[in-house]
Design a protein that fits this description.
- This is Cytochrome c domain-containing protein.
- With 116 residues, the chain is mainly α.
- The chain has one domain: Cytochrome Bc1 Complex, Chain D, domain 2.
- The radius of gyration is 17 Å and the shape is globular.
- The protein binds heme C.
- Heme C (HEC) binds next to helix 2, helix 3 and helix 4.
Length: 116
């Protein structure tokens, strides 16, 4: 019980400090999910294998040829319904994600993060 109370107090303190910085908790959650599930392919930087670009970023650079940014984090046109379509169906080399892996709320949080 003491541990539970201490944990609750800690969680409260953390969310207070996040709120104090003006960060929307949904955006914070969206960034965490994006970094875990999407950034390995859609990040801006070079991959762990030192390839120059990650597969998602490289595919989108090729698709748009500069008309739209290659990195999803530089896009502002990806609403939750659009993300849902790609994430639930997959696209080309991109795998689809089941609801057990990524909830609808997670996708909405990613959309909020990308729009932020
Ligand atoms: C295994 C690598 C991989 C992962 C993980 C991945 N993607 Fe992708 N994604 C791709 C590739 C490759 C494409 C380009 C597919 C194509 O050419 O049809 C793509 C395309 C997309 C597109 C289409 C953009 C456009 O304008 O055509 C969206 C949106 C997208 N991904 C979102 C996501 C999100 C959100 C996540 C995390 C939940 C994610 N992807 C995880 C590889 C990945």
């Amino acid at each position: 019980m003491k541990l539970l109370l201490a944990t609750l107090a800690l969680v409260g303190a953390v969310s207070l400090s996040v709120a104090a910085q003006g960060e929307d908790p949904q955006v914070v959650h969206g960034r965490q999910v994006f970094e875990r599930q999407c950034a390995p392919c859609h990040g801006r930087g070079p991959g762990d294998d030192r390839s120059e670009m990650l597969p998602g970023t490289a595919a989108l650079a090729h698709k748009y040829e500069g008309r739209l940014p290659a990195a999803l984090e530089d896009r502002t046109d990806l609403s939750a319904p659009v993300l849902t379509l790609f994430v639930r169906r997959g696209s080309g080399a991109m795998p689809f994600f089941r609801k057990a892996e990524l909830s609808d709320a997670d996708i909405e949080a990613i959309a909020a993060y990308l729009a932020d």
